[in-house]
Amino acid sequence: MFVIEGLLIVSYILLLNFTKTELQRLKMEVNGLPKSSIKQKATLSPVGNNVKSIIVYPQNESDKYIVYMFVSPSCVACHGELEDYLNSQLNIPFICLLESSIEMLANEFMEKYHEQFPIIPIYYEDMKNINVVTNPTFLIVNAEGDIEKVFYIAQGVRTWYSQSLAL
User: Could you tell me the pLDDT band of residue 92, with boundaries at 50, 70 and 90?
Assistant: First the structure.
């Protein structure tokens, strides 16, 4: 019995020493890697910004929230998330903000979806003004135009809706 306990203690000490040595070696390797040359600023959250600074859209005062979705016409993920959102059939107003720097693709997108929901063409610079830098992006906007929530997939909007509004 004592022999087994002794072997377990010795095994534990050996494992501990091996782990410590290996972590030290890995730390030296990481420290030896070249420093990144990419100088990218941390992106600020859009939450708290006001969408009225980039778009004007008449809102019915009875609407407590509106879902704004930023899309790029050439973005496959945008089309997938848009279809996913539309299949959700949430009872909340929806507006699509279409990044329209490539006119031909923007026109094709508008032709395909213009009867299903409002589409407002915008420029990437306008998106950056409210700290939206990726597509797709869903914004939950209150009646005053302030951004309250940000989601990057339709499932996030559905979850928020079911927890906040579908009572």
Answer: confident
